[in-house]
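Before the break, one more example. Copy the sequence into your notebook; we will annotate it together after we see the structure.
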Amino acid sequence: MREISAKFFVLVTCSCFLLASALHQPNPAGDNVTKSCVPREREALLAFKQGITIDSYNTLASWQRGQDCCRWTGVTCSSQTGHVVNLDLRDGALVGQLSPSLLSLEYLEYLDLSWSFLEGPLSIPEFLGSMKNLRHLDLSGMPFSGIMPSFLGNLSYLEYLDLSYTSFSGNVPPQLGNLSNLQQLGLSWVQKLYSTDISWLSHLHLLEYLDMSSVNLRAAVDWPHVLNRLPSMQAINLDSCSLQSANQSLAHQNLTNLVQLHLSYNRFDHLVASCWFWNLSNIESLSLFGTYLYGQFPIELGHMTSLKDIAFGKNDNRAKMQVDMKDLCALERLWLEGLSLGNAAELLENLPKCPSNKLQVLNLRDNRMTGILPDRLSHLTGLDTLDLSNNNITGAIPPGIGNCTGLQVLDLSNNYIAGDVYLGNENIFTNLALVNLSNNHIRGVIPRGVGNSTFLGMFDLSNNDINGALPQGIAQLVPAMGSLDLSNNHINGLIPQVIGNFTFPLESLDLSNNDHNGPLPQGIAQVFPNLGNLDVSNSHISGAIPSEIVNSSTLHTLILRFNQINGRVPALPKSLTFLDISMNFLSGPLPSDFGAPNLKGLNLFSNRISGHIPQSICYLQNMLVLNLSYNFLEGTLPECFQMPNTVFLLLSNNNFSGKFPSLLQNCSNLAFVDLSWNQFNGRLPQWIGNMVYLRFVQLSYNMFNGYIPANITVVPHF
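Here is what the structure looks like once it is written out:
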């Protein structure tokens, strides 16, 4: 949803920005400059540079003494007078002090210091209020805090003011109402800012764009009446403003030029049809996510023929909604989420029926839709995104979907779709970047058309009834794929050997809960050098863990539990944070050097591992979960075993011996401890009762003696 606002901001502000750029475009090469810069202004700019302590992008590298400042990066001069009129250092990430030397740039009209870290005394330096010729001021993303200064109201020529993403607090100064030439005002995501009375806005008769997202306007109950006095307004963005209602009655509608209205994440909690804006026929973008509006859409929605984007959802709607959009021929993006929309076929019949269908994004997820998907989807040939996930759709995927060859995102996950995994036309994969068909009842084999994709980055067929073997050369089929999830299916046979000198960008591979057999293929770490997550659990895998896996520099999660893997526990990749090889046939001792200093979870439950716990385990200071239960380990815990972060320590059903491990009192975060079915002996220590996070202790079937410490009964979480 946030994309609507971002994209539409560009459209709405385009004309003003292009005009400003044409007049004041920075000219590092000095094209068409006929006057050299004024020496006093050059000195002012050099003084500004002197206050910069970090210039990561070398933005000011061209600012050299003795050079013409009109040729410096970010500086534009008047071709007639040589005076600096434009200083554009946006996104420069400059760090330092905001020098008052800028006050010497008397003819400066355009100042953009956005997304730098130029500090004054907490707030905007007062000298900026004296730069009377400024027409464009952008200080967004700067580290200013405290009360927003009222002296900004002195900049009477300002046409553009953006203070978004700063840390100001308190009331928006009503003096901003003095900026009678202002056309664009951005105060978005200044989350400690509020305004109890926005009547000052009504004085900004030329205002075209207003973004006050996240400014608290709870007390501004008359906000529609104030905005209705601004006939020049083209875009209003008041997302997350704590507005209480949108059902005010307006005697006359003056906002005839309004094309964007974003009111998402306010709590209106009244009938959607009672809102004041439904007769604004020129609206192109309307966003009403999370507004608690309910009831039926009004008839007027079907007459808003200029609509390109509409976003409505997550509103706790209390009844089935009817949506008639047959005549909305300009519609490009439709988001309707978290509603009750009834039958899928009926809903799709109410989408635009126009000679030239412009619909590009159709998002109807989380709508409790029922029924089957109609073949009418074949008419939506301009779609690049189709998301019907988290509904109750049944039946097969209609073959007509194959006509949507421009699709980039296809998400039909979490439905009851059955039938073959056939998308009507194998060419549909040509442009697809994301396919999610998980959690359905789809059967058949992996479609060959996957190999036609150059861009497919994520493919998820998990939790279906897919069968057959993985195609040979599957790595070559998906050259751009970053994530492949085929878990919880009935895929059988060997995992194909990945061979050759090619490498592929796969980052996550999940083949768990299938019917594979044979070993993990050799060379997997070389062919997938970016692999971070590998899960082949519960898949009948046998043989040893490939030895070269230790050389991976990216693998952080390796899950191979419940297979038939044998051999020894190998040395681990340094990047590994979680390893689960439980319920296999691993034997022999643990590696003398685990080699994974950032390991947080180690699960070797139910194997045939023998010998002592090596000293190297003491280096695993980030360990949260350690499960060595049901093995043949013996001896005592290493004296260095002091893991302050460990929460789960499970060592049951081994041959450990000795006194109750006193070093456990240094494991201050322990919550679950299971030492049962070992040969520990001696008395239980009193300090067990001091372990404030302890919730579960299992010590049965050992050789402890003496009394149970009384204070164990007062452990807070027992």
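The radius of gyration is 33 Å. Residues 1-33 have pLDDT under 50 and may be disordered. Try to locate both features in your own notes.
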